[in-house]
Amino acid sequence: MDRPAREPLQLLGEIEEVLGIGAYPMNWPIGDGSDFRGVFDRREHHLHLFDRAERGERAAPVTVVGPEDPSLESILPAGAARTPP
Hints:
The chain has one domain (about 10-75). It is of the alpha+beta class. Strands 1-2-3-4 form a four-stranded antiparallel β-sheet, with no helix packed on it. It has two helices and four strands, in the order αββββα. A hairpin with a 4-residue loop joins β2 (about 40) and β3 (about 45-50).
């Protein structure tokens, strides 16, 4: 999701259609492309926020916070702090 992509629900629909199975996302992306900020873990109700890494680095730093964390309003794009479907 760190590159521009189709809407997550469109991708889920394609997976279900092609594979003939029901799909349930356990992680929900927060933004995409240059606006990608991390994922929401639907089971644990935590956000895994990724810091940008320099090109070639093995892994980007990750911050884990709860959806009620007040710092989210300043970190995430407008409207992204609400709970996903």
